[in-house]
Design a protein that fits this description.
Layout: E1 2-6, E2 9-13, E3 19-21, E4 26-29, H1 36-42, H2 51-65, E5 70-73, H3 83-86, H4 89-101, E6 103-107, E7 121-123, E8 125-128, E9 131-134, E10 144-146, E11 151-157, E12 160-169, E13 173-175, E14 186-187, H5 191-194, E15 202-206, E16 211-215
Parallel strand pairs: 4-5, 5-6, 6-7, 9-10, 10-13, 11-14
Antiparallel strand pairs: 1-2, 2-3, 3-4, 8-9, 11-12, 12-13, 12-15, 15-16
Helix pairs in contact: 2-4
Length: 220
């Protein structure tokens, strides 16, 4: 884990991709995309079928290590509006266990449709202690934390190109990496991400046991 200062507040970045706000005892995670595999299976494209169970197992493991009472899901928690109904037994048990142990706020993303699980509190955005949480970043927002873009960043070390999911921050905006097992990523140097940041931003790359914070100027 790594503690950073963001908008005058202390946040903790976890190597799992989870964000912790210790003062509020809230954990934040983005883009689980549960049941992506079964969605594509319905389209005739086969993907590893246990991805929801694997994603939820990693989420539960990360939460068990951390001191928080609330969980904020920043959108695209399910890959489509019918994803909740397709959870197989083991994954559903994990989902229900997490929802019973934490106060869960379910921010709606572009994949979720308007379906809010009954165990959660649904919202289009959440404002908490001066910070706005939403699924997709909005230009002109003052202090904002979001997901949606699945950011990743690349470094060249020892002649090798290394690419990892990452948090992206500047003084007032943060974008979380995707947490889902079967989610891809968009490079932080792409216009869709870089144009959201008015100043030099930092990519916080997820390592196996450490967060590596790298200014945009050093990224490939």
């Amino acid at each position: 884990m790594k503690t950073i200062e963001f908008a005058g507040k202390s946040f903790v970045l976890d190597t799992s991709g989870l964000l912790i706000w210790p003062d509020q005892r809230v954990a934040v995670v983005a883009d689980l995309h549960l049941e992506k595999a079964t969605y594509f299976a319905g389209q005739g494209q086969l993907l590893p079928p246990q991805e929801s169970y694997e994603t939820l197992s990693r989420l539960q493991s990360a939460l068990n290590r951390l001191d928080c009472s609330s969980l904020l899901l920043l959108g695209d928690s399910f890959h489509d509006a019918a994803g909740l109904d397709r959870l197989e037994r083991r994954a559903r048990e994990l989902w229900e266990q997490i929802c019973s142990e934490y106060s869960v706020t379910f921010i709606l993303g572009n994949h979720d449709g308007m379906v809010v699980p009954s165990q959660t509190q649904g919202a289009n955005l959440l404002e908490l202690a001066g910070v706005t949480f939403r699924h997709q970043a909005v230009l002109g927002a003052s202090v904002e934390i979001s997901g949606h873009y699945h950011p990743k960043a690349s470094l060249r070390l020892g002649g090798k190109r290394i690419t990892r999911p990452c948090f992206v921050t500047d003084a007032s905006r943060m974008i979380l990496p995707s947490f889902g097992t079967l989610t891809g990523g968009l490079d932080v140097k792409s216009d869709a991400i870089s144009e959201l940041f008015a100043s030099e931003f930092t990519a916080h790359l997820l390592g196996e046991s450490k967060i590596y914070s790298v200014p945009a100027s050093r990224l490939v």
